[in-house]
Amino acid sequence: MKKNILLIHTGGTISMSEDKTGAVKPGEKNPLTEEGQILSSLANLVVEEPFNLPSPHITMKNMMILKEILERYDQSSGIDGAVITHGTDTLEETAYFLDLTLQTKYPIVVTGAMRSSNEIGSDGLYNLISSIRVASSEDAQNKGVLVVLNDEIHTAENVTKTHTSNVSTFQSPQFGPIGLVTKQDIFFHHMPSYREKYEISASCKQRNVVLIKAHAGMDASLFYAIRDLEVNGVVIEALGQGNMPPATVPGIQALIERNIPVVIVSRAFNGIVQGVYAYEGGGKQLKEMGVIFSNGLNGQKARIKLLVALDRTNNMNEIAEMFRL
Ligand code: ASP
Predict the structure, then answer these.
(1) What confidence tens digit (pLDDT) does each residue in 47-65 have?
(2) I need a labelling partner for 237 at 20 to 30 A (CA). Which of 126, 201, 282, 286 fits?
């Protein structure tokens, strides 16, 4: 029997077309809305289009709107699953935000495309069909927000965009996908081990958490500038296991003295940061200074998590505990 699927379009390449000059852009009409016949053969669709934005234009405000729509449909029963179409550039951030903050009972799948609707080899409609099939699957329950592209099913927590243009851009480094889409079936071969859920308030979208990347020879100037901007939190993509160039240390110290939480992830996209090295700027020293070490999230997702954390608490130990999970 066909399932009832909530389909939310938000924009991105999947909703764009290429013009004669080769430029890809949104048009008057979302091309996905013209695929009604094919899509309605898969499920009974309820379609929402709260905005039509390239994903670099997506903000926390848009993510909150999506959360509200999904919660509204959860209460008025009858929906068996949801699919969100989204630009791929920030797709993982929206998916992870929803994963952390939604308590909804039905499966939620986020998808996008690397080639716009009228390009040869366009992957948009295909990914959308796969996503509706996954959202309709009983086996997709209780796995958190899923990301489906290119026949693979990933968790929002682990997936990341790894390639600027390739259709297999979405990967879960270190973990791999948790399932596969085939012509006839949906196969899950892993179960995510732990699902965190946090209640958040509307003020989540007002906070400012910045993300910066460490490099050889970096000094403290950027950290002093950030401190003076009075941001609410800082995420640093540090080196290796969580180390920083020695000249950055006084700047990081200045942030901590202002009570601004500093979360460390690694610019290496596999593995977990730990306070191992005891030299100047090494992870051990940073940890002793009060820097919070994250548990394998990438920088952009640690930023989302810090925004969610700051909505609950300013207590450094409580924030650190959230990043240990
Ligand atoms: N720049 C586009 C966006 O994120 C890319 C895409 O949709 O895949 O909206």
Answers:
(1) 999 999 999 999 999 999 9
(2) 201
